[in-house]
Structure formats: C-alpha cells, structure tokens
Amino acid sequence: MTKEQERARARRRHEEQQKSAKPPVGDSTRDKQVFGVILAVILIVAAVIVVPKIVGSSDSPAPAAGATTPASTATGTATSTPTSTGGLAAGQKLAAGCTAPPANQTTPKQQKEVPAKAAAAGKTFVATVKTTCGDLTFELDGAKAPQTVASFINLAKTGYWAPSPCHRVTTEGIYVLQCGDPTGTGQGGPGYTFGIENAPKDGKYATGVLAMARTSDPNSNGGQFFITYKETQLPTDGGGYTIFGKVTKGLDIVEKIAANKALPPSPADGTPVSPISILSVSVTEKKA
C-alpha cells in the first residue's frame, strides 16, 4: 500500500468517527441546562418550605384565628408549649401570681357519644375553673346553647381538662385566649364533635365572651374554647362560633396573660409567653 493510499484510508476513518460523534454543546445550550438545574433546585426548596405550612393549616382547629379566625389554626398550633414533664418552655416566663404549669396530657380521655343537650336545655350554670394563675368563673347559658353547655358539663365532670394548657393567645386583629386541648398542640379533642349554636350574625364578640373553637367544618366543635378579653370581630363564613357563656370573674387574669403576648416568631398569635393551665373545672346549676 502506497503512502497516498494510507493517507486516504486515514481520512476515511476520521470522517467516519466525526459522523458518529455527538456534536459539542454550544454556549446557549449549556446555559439552558444550567438554568434548568437551578430552577429545579428552587422548586424543590420551595416545596419543602411551603407544603408543610399548607398541610398544617388545613388540620388545625381554629375558632377566631390567624388575623382572621379564632382558635387552633396553624399559627395557633402550640409548638413551644411546656414539655411533657411540665414547667416552662424556652422563652416563657411566669406572670405575677402564677405558678409553673403541670405536664400536658399525652392521651386525653375519649368519648364516642355526644352528651344529650336535654341535660342543659333551658338552664343556667356556674363553672369554677381553677388555673395556675387563679380562679376563673363562667356563667353558662343552656337556654341559648344547650348542646355546647351539656358538653362542657360532661367534660368537666369526667376531668377531661385536668390539666390542660391555654395554648394560644392572639393580640392583634382578634383578642382571644384559647384553651381546652389537654395535649397543648391545638389538635386535641374529646372524641366527639357537634354543630354550631348561638353564633352572632354580625360576627361581633363582646369582651368576656366564652365561645367554642372549631376548624372550618361547622360540625367540628369539641373541647376547645376561647375567651375574648377585648371586643372582637370574627368572620361569619361557615356559621361563626358558638357563644355559650361569659366570664363573670377572673377576666383580669386573661388580660394579664394577653399583655405579655405570644412567643416568637409571632408575638401577635401563638403560645403565650406567660403560661396558664387549667387544673380542674366544677359546674353547678344556678338557681333562680
């Protein structure tokens, strides 16, 4: 084979290799690939941050919450409540006249049947609520909210709330202290639920009102309730929130807790800086 033939053969091999080789990535293509990788990373990070918030907000009980609804919403969910061994959580401090809270319950008493409202219908009751900051006295209106009052009496007699923290305070937009979940998470309930009674059509809740906390489901009333320590306007969507009584003594205690606001990161809505826990509840019928 001559040198000329060898050079020709080499050229043919080179041409064949060039045909089968992948073309080089141009600058514009490379830029698109890099941008795609960055975008994918951003989407993954966003999903990790946002999705838990969305999921959490759908499950938390909420009467008048966030800036617009009361009771255990995602922002109301207690993430810094006292530990299972009792005492203060990080950042908490006792208000004057208060003692350290006991441990939250891990397995509250559960019931399947809704208490019969006939037990409270047409009657008025007085509830004495002993707390770590002093006694509160409620007047319960069985004429306007017989199902709710019957449930409250039942939970008091069975010791459901002994003990349980007031796990949420709101200090902007709405003014409530929310209590009644023995676990302190804002997710606890007695095992049964019932519907709305005696909710104001205009959404106005006077100072000292005692009302039920619930989720967006109108039939989700259970064991959580809230106290308005200042006149509050709440949304009427979904039927509003059941008013079943009023505070007749001890509202100053609630005001004291609210004055110290909530723990960071949201001082306007969350776990109280100054803890207060229910130790026992007793109820007697008020005679005419």
Automatic annotation (TrEMBL):
The keyword Isomerase appears for this protein: yes
GO-annotated molecular function: peptidyl-prolyl cis-trans isomerase activity
Signal peptide: none
Keyword Cytoplasm: no
InterPro entries the UniProt entry points to: Cyclophilin-like_dom_sf, Cyclophilin-type_PPIase_dom, Cyclophilin_A-like
Region of interest called Disordered, as start-end residue ranges on this chain: 1-29, 57-89
Gene3D superfamilies found in the cross-reference section: Cyclophilin-like
Transmembrane segments: 34-55
Catalysis: reaction(s): [protein]-peptidylproline (omega=180) = [protein]-peptidylproline (omega=0)
Residues in PPIase cyclophilin-type domain copies: 134-283
Keywords for the protein's UniProt record, in alphabetical order: Isomerase, Membrane, Rotamase, Transmembrane, Transmembrane helix
Top-level taxon of the source organism: Bacteria
Function: PPIases accelerate the folding of proteins. It catalyzes the cis-trans isomerization of proline imidic peptide bonds in oligopeptides.
Similarity field: Belongs to the cyclophilin-type PPIase family.
Descriptive protein name: Peptidyl-prolyl cis-trans isomerase
